Each structure stands twice: as structure tokens, then as C-alpha cells.
Amino acid sequence: MSADTPGPGFAIAALRERLDAIDARILELVAERQELVTRIGESKHREGRALRDYGREREVIEKGMQRAEALGMPGAIARDILERLIHHSLSNQEQRQLVASGHGAGLRALVIGGKGRMGDWLARYFDALGYAVEIADPAPGESLFREVGDWRETPLDHDVIAVAAPLRASNTILGELATHRPSGLVFDIGSLKGPLQEGLEAMRKAGCRITSVHPMFGPAELMLSGRHILFVDAGNADA
Question: At 40, phi and psi to the nearest 5?
């Protein structure tokens, strides 16, 4: 090899530069796609149309798989990419619709256990709806939301109180809440209801607006569309 002939390292570097340029272009196209999705979501909201169009989603994925296979790639690659893009697009649309709804405007929410992963998810969800959110959690670490310290020392005059602590702690918290008889809606998110029976019964006997829910998804979920939440009757019809 002469001194003027590029070595293997030069060729690899040049190819990597091309890859970087392609990656940058891919991200630019994703951003352009997200902008179009936002405009579509705004039009849907104005027209009162449903957020999801399952037929259109299926059509997009099937076309993408066919194009990938025509280019010599496995269709599964296109499916994985498009499913993720659709998921994030729907999440952005849902977030915008939540904010636009203003359902929580002028209302207050307290999340007991708001520094936990599901507690933080709930706090963010209430915030998106327009609630003024407060959290109570002795765990170390900072939160985006106002902390009230010991919830027992607050007036408990919130419109909604969510109990998002571990099961045993949640049962104790519900029992203590019953002695304060908060006027707002109270619910827990425990995955098992047996360990909460004593606390839920105390709330019911105290005449509180108590219910119990079980989100069938984890804190990494970005949206509610297509997800399930179980509602458990805790003995108060108003709740």
C-alpha cells in the first residue's frame, strides 16, 4: 500500500460519517412526522373525533412492512419502528387533549406517596388535567410538585386524594384518613385489595367518598388510550 492510498481506517471513518448523516436525516424525518401528527390531532379534537383510528394504524403498519420487504429488509423491523412511532404520536395527542380539556381547572389533588413511580405518574396525570397538585411523601428526593410534608397536618380539603403508597402503608393511611373524613373523592391504586379491606371499610363507615382502582399498566406507560383500569366498588355509590 503506497503512502497516498487511504488505509482501512480511513474507509471506516468515511462510512461512519455517512451513517451519522443518515441518522440525522432519520431524526429530522421523525420530527417532521410528529409535526404532521400534531396537526392531525388538533383537527380531530376540533371535529370531536376519536383519538385512535385502529384501521388507519393497521394500514400504516401493513404498508410499512410491505415497503421494508420490497427493500430486502424483514417486515418486522418496519413493524417495530412504526408501532413505536404510533405509540409516541398517540401519547402526544392524548397529552394535548388532556391539557385542552381543562377538567381539573380550579380543583386540587393530593397524591399521598407522590414520589413513588405510580404516585409520580398520577401527579403528572392530574397536572395535565389542570389540577393544582400537591404530594405527601416522606421519601427523600425532589419532586416537580408542591410537597405538603405530613398530610395529617393539612386541612385535607382537596377535591381528590389518591393513595399511592405500598399496600400495608396504604391500609394504614386509609384508616387514618377515615378519622379526618375528607370531603373529596379518595381512592387507592393497590394491586391487591385484600390487604386494604380494613382501611377501605373504615372509610366507608365514616361516610367518605371512597373507591378503589387498579391500573392495569405500569408507570412507564405514556398514555391511557388502549389501557385498562379496574374500578372496585368500595361501598360508596357517589364515588
Answer: -65, -45
